[in-house]
Design brief:
By secondary structure, the chain is mainly beta. The mean pLDDT is 97.
C-alpha cells in the first residue's frame, strides 16, 4: 500500500458518535442494519447501512458509541441513502467488529 502524508490523513474526518436508533434492513443484498448516529452539534445526525449482522442486532447498537468517516459523499445502498461510513475490522471469520472508544467521548470528537 502506498504511503501517505499526514496532510493526506487529516483530510479524512473521523469522528465518534452515539447510535440513536437502528433497524433491520431486509431489502439489502447482503444482511445489513440501518443505523442513525449522533455526531454532535457540528455534524448532526447521520445514517448508515452497515453489514454488521453477525455480531450485532439493532437493539445491541442503540446507545453504543461508534467511529465513522463523516466527510465521504453520501452513497445509495438500495433504497437507503448512507451518509457516513461506520468503521470496523474483520475478525477471524471475516465478520465485522465495530471500532468504538473504550471510554465515553463527546459526540463529534475528532480522531487524533
Amino acid at each position: 500500500m502506498a504511503e501517505i502524508t499526514f496532510d493526506d490523513f487529516m483530510k479524512v474526518d473521523i469522528r465518534v458518535g452515539t447510535v440513536l436508533r437502528a433497524e433491520p434492513y431486509p431489502e439489502a443484498r447482503k444482511p445489513a442494519i440501518k443505523v442513525w448516529v449522533d455526531f454532535g452539534p457540528e455534524i448532526g445526525e447521520r445514517k448508515s447501512s452497515a453489514q454488521i449482522t453477525q455480531h450485532y442486532t439493532p437493539e445491541d447498537l442503540v446507545g453504543k458509541q461508534v467511529i465513522g468517516v463523516v466527510n465521504f459523499p453520501p452513497r445509495q445502498i438500495g433504497k437507503f441513502m448512507s451518509e457516513v461510513l461506520i468503521l470496523g475490522l474483520h475478525d477471524a471469520d471475516n465478520a465485522v467488529v465495530l471500532l468504538s472508544p473504550d471510554h465515553p467521548a463527546p459526540n463529534g470528537a475528532r480522531m487524533c
